[in-house]
Design goal:
Length: 366
């Protein structure tokens, strides 16, 4: 039928160009060469997936208390279930596990409330999370007050220790990194020089060396007879190291802010600190969310290096487990479990950063 303007109506696209068939044709089979490559990739996936599924699920063993329960030819997940408490809590007393569970349950509740817009006084809730919650967690873990049995930090370990180290590193390194970035951009020569020296020094030293030196050298600078906890030494080393990298990430955001924003802040009569807090830093931090989260993810994975100073994080407790004479030969299951745990946390941080980018997007994305 001819339209009023004398033209024929648009015809629908061919069925082979839309839907599932259209997607397959355009993405997997657009040409003879791409078709050949697609079938080759499917064959490679088949060679990898089938044996993996067979090992991990079909011929695996899940229930039991010792290696005697591993009778199949696949994975022995009994190793994970039998030593799960060690992997989660380290050598923490079993009767006191509830303290660790309570601390992390409070954290989850606070994070959920902070992400609900309808919750009143979220600013005070955030301040409580950053200031009061660490104190509560410290006393829950270490005990010695309110009738709680004291637990030495040498018994902390597993995933709980990994989360403590990474959590302290993340919370402390971000504000310190912001201060260092502002110092490096400062017009005061002494402040700028001190910030540059600090940043370049810590960025030029491997983290494993920082941890070793913080454990061995730091007590030498303290008064004689002063007891300095090994876990606290590791935390200080991690925070100083990560703050240098965080400073460079934030400095990149500051450099991306147009000069007109600084001039607009001066035109409004704002002093340096107000212009930074109200205008410059909010924009700069939004721009570098991917870089900040990438640094956090690297920090979370780098906590495995604390084994050099005798702390038993998640990976170290897993390695200690399969080196036990009763569980020799099950290293692969341990490493797969460790990889899965690290992937879950790192992927979650990555997805949350993308959520923040979409939520805070103000036209910078292209």
């Amino acid at each position: 039928m001819i339209n009023k303007n004398g033209t024929l109506p648009d015809l629908p696209p061919p069925s082979t160009n839309i839907g599932v068939i259209g997607w397959l044709r355009n993405n997997l089979f657009p040409s003879p060469l791409n078709t050949l490559l697609t079938f080759f990739a499917i064959y490679i996936i088949y060679l990898v997936i089938v044996p993996t599924v067979d090992w991990a699920f079909l011929n695996s063993n899940w229930v039991g208390e010792s290696r005697d329960a591993c009778t199949g030819g696949g994975a022995c997940w009994v190793f994970i279930s039998a030593r799960f408490d060690l992997f989660m809590y380290g050598f923490y007393p079993e009767s006191e596990y509830w303290r660790i569970n309570l601390a992390f349950a409070i954290l989850v509740l606070l994070l959920v409330l902070l992400n609900i817009r309808q919750v009143p006084q979220r600013g005070w809730l955030a301040a409580f999370t950053l200031i009061c919650y660490p104190v509560i967690t410290f006393y829950l873990f270490s005990g010695g007050v309110f009738g709680l049995d004291p637990v030495d930090t040498s018994k902390w370990g597993g995933l709980s220790l990994t989360l403590i180290l990474s959590g302290v590193g993340i919370v402390a390194s971000l504000p310190l990194g912001v201060i260092l970035a502002l110092g490096r951009n400062s017009q005061m020569p002494i402040v700028k020089a001190a910030s540059i020296v600090f940043i370049e020094f810590w960025r030029g030293v491997p983290l494993i060396t920082v941890l070793f030196m913080s454990s061995v050298m730091l007590p030498l600078f303290l008064p004689e007879g002063t007891s300095f906890d090994k876990l606290l030494r590791a935390m200080i080393g991690i925070v100083l190291f990560e703050s240098a990298y965080m400073a460079e990430v934030v400095r990149g955001g500051l450099a991306a802010i147009p000069r007109g924003q600084y001039e607009a802040a001066k035109a409004l009569g704002l002093n340096y600190w107000k212009s930074m807090a109200l205008i410059i830093l909010p924009q700069a931090l939004k721009l570098v969310i991917p870089g900040i989260v990438n640094t956090f993810i690297a920090l979370f994975k780098d906590t495995t290096l604390v084994l050099i100073i005798g702390l038993f994080d998640l990976l170290t407790t897993i390695e200690a487990g399969f080196k036990d004479s009763h569980w020799l030969g099950y290293a692969l299951e341990g490493y797969v479990f460790a990889a899965l745990v690290y992937w879950i946390f790192c992927f979650s941080m990555s997805r949350y950063s993308q959520h923040l980018e979409r939520k805070l997007s103000t036209g910078h994305a292209r």
